[in-house]
């Protein structure tokens, strides 16, 4: 049933040059403006978990429509290695996907029990956008899609 709720698609990246890791996630949500907090849910057996604990920080990368291939790469047990995709390091050394629509760099703030997932809360310490006009990637009913670009006339500025 949750598949009937359309979301964006993010890749969470963390770790240093030796242990960089990435996982595709659509459970991202913003939580608070002051302080700036966001969350995502991470399944308990994710390979990202131990790296996140060591690193104490993560980056939420919002994907563009043209990054569907990258999203699937990081969505399986045999996930691609971070080294295979274009990325650079933030000022504090966390990996940022170079072609992402936008990114939020976070300090690991809290972790709550969420059943077979952990609810991971981060405090946003830096952010950026690609600056372009790229369309976001959307996940709905098991498929990645583009936004319908027809904006109702009443919503145009
Ligand atoms: C569109 C999409 C959204 C996903 N969202 C989540 C999520 O919010 N949390 C999560 O733990 N896994 C999520 N997954 C599954 C992980 O991407 C996948 O389990 C993981 O990459 C595989 O192993 P790893 O977590 O050990 O890297 C999602 C997969 C897809 C395709």
In short:
By secondary structure, this protein is mainly beta.
In N-to-C order, the SSE pattern is EEEEEHEHEEEEEE
Residues in helices, as a percent range: under 10%
Total beta-strand segments: 12
Helix count from the secondary structure assignment: 2
- Biggest β-sheet description: 7 strands, antiparallel
The quaternary structure here is single chain
Average residue pLDDT? 93
Task: Give the CA-CA distance, first to last residue.
Answer: 34 Å
| Unique ligands | flavin mononucleotide
What is the SS-derived class?
mainly beta
Q: Give the radius of gyration.
A: 15 Å
- Uncertain segments of ≥5 residues (pLDDT<50)? none
Gross geometry: globular
What is the strand content?
35-45%
Detail the topology: elements first, then pairings.
Layout: E1 7-8, E2 10-14, E3 21-25, E4 29-32, E5 37-43, H1 48-55, E6 57-62, H2 68-73, E7 87-89, E8 95-97, E9 102-114, E10 117-129, E11 137-140, E12 143-146
Antiparallel strand pairs: 1-11, 2-3, 2-6, 4-5, 5-10, 6-9, 7-8, 9-10, 11-12
The structure holds flavin mononucleotide (FMN).
Flavin mononucleotide is lined by residues 9, 23-27, 40-43, 46-48, 74-77, 79, 117, 139.
């Amino acid at each position: 049933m949750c598949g009937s709720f359309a979301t964006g698609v993010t890749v969470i990246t963390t770790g240093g040059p030796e242990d960089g890791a990435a996982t595709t996630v659509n459970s991202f949500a913003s939580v608070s403006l002051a302080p700036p907090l966001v969350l995502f849910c991470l399944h308990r057996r994710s390979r990202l978990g131990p790296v996140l604990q060591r690193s104490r920080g993560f980056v939420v990368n919002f994907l563009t429509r043209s990054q569907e291939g990258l999203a699937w790469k990081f969505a399986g047990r045999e996930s691609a290695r971070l080294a295979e995709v274009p990325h650079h390091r933030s000022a504090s050394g966390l990996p940022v996907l170079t072609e992402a629509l936008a990114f939020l760099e976070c300090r690991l703030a809290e972790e709550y029990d969420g059943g077979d997932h952990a609810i991971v809360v981060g405090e946003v310490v830096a952010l950026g956008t690609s600056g372009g006009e790229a369309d976001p990637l959307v996940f709905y009913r098991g498929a990645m899609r583009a936004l319908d670009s027809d904006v109702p006339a009443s919503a145009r500025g």
